[in-house]
Write the structure tokens for this entry.
Amino acid sequence: MVAQAESGDWRRPFPLHRSRLRQPVLHSSRPLMPKFRRILVRAQAGAYSVLCGRGLFRQASRLVGGLGNHTGVFLLSSPRVWKHWGPALAAGFRRGSGSKASLFDDREAAKDLATVGRVCRRLMRAGADRGAVIVALGGGVVGDVAGFVAASYLRGVRLVHVPTTLVAQVDSAIGGKTGVNLTEGKNLVGAFYPPALVLADPQLLSTLPERQYRSGLYEVIKYGVIGDAQLFAFLERNLEALRRRQRRALDGVIPRCIRAKAEVVSRDERESGLREILNFGHTVGHALEAATRYSRFLHGEAVGWGMIAATMLGVAMSRLDPAVGARIVRLVLRAGPLPALPPISATRLRAAMRADKKARGGRLRFVLPRAIGRVEAASDVPERLVEEMLRELPFLVRQER
């Protein structure tokens, strides 16, 4: 499915069935334990597995070894993630072929080319060659930096993601997008570079701070709006259980979102059409992050604001029933308190949106909801409506609360 020049409408974009992709061979002598789920993602470089299940983290060394021969494992993480999970991960590799670790700042404000350069130099000094495997332990920033490093260092080395945040487990670790920020905008320098393996272990979320965890819930809600009405209805009934990190709810939602992401990116790896639906909430969200220099909002929080903004535009353009729009806004707000919008002018936000990579020929491009489970991409949103939406956004949210 390919988007039209001005707008694209996708119905039932990802049927949530078991993938029929041929499974790549993992060369481990021991079979994968039945309690772990394997979800396959098609990429131009070949299919790769996303494994999901509790306790998976403890098998990382064996599973990385199952990818085939390598000349060294290099662990990339951040100090705050490493203190919880790094020693245990490193110990598993020491029992095998050994590993070396490099830590860097995982704040969004530090996700830049300078960080990429420092990590690449550390890899060179540590002796990483083209047979190396990079294992990224952390959230979205660690994954984005490690992914870009893996794509760039010696023109490409193997990459394994071990995501430790909800955002990364359901979204950013899957699909092969890597990138870092410029002052002018978010993720403006990067590459499409699929990992060799993703290990999503819900147990790693146990040390995640409440605000970081809540940030991931906005991305979960996104999947319900863009293509899964049943998931959206489940979230309406069970959001409080998810907020409490109830095991049964969480262990059901995470693989469902992974399958949704896998379905979309397998059909459109490089965002030439269908994959654009994953940008629901990201036009305004990325602008908010860039305009505040990546210091005020977590990514999911900015996307939460962006989903409300896109929903307002859908209603204003008579493409979405107001009652349905109200359901979307209410669910987003139930996920938790969003940081207040700063006093940024609509002009400045529009400039940030135009600098975003989703803009086409200087025209803003939004993903707008048409119904629960169906969205469209549109670049025909009138400027006056964007201006009105940006002015009214904080007032609408206050009324809904």
Summary: The two ends are 38 Å apart (CA to CA). The longest helix spans residues 247-267. The longest strand covers residues 185-192. The chain has two domains: 32-207, 213-400.
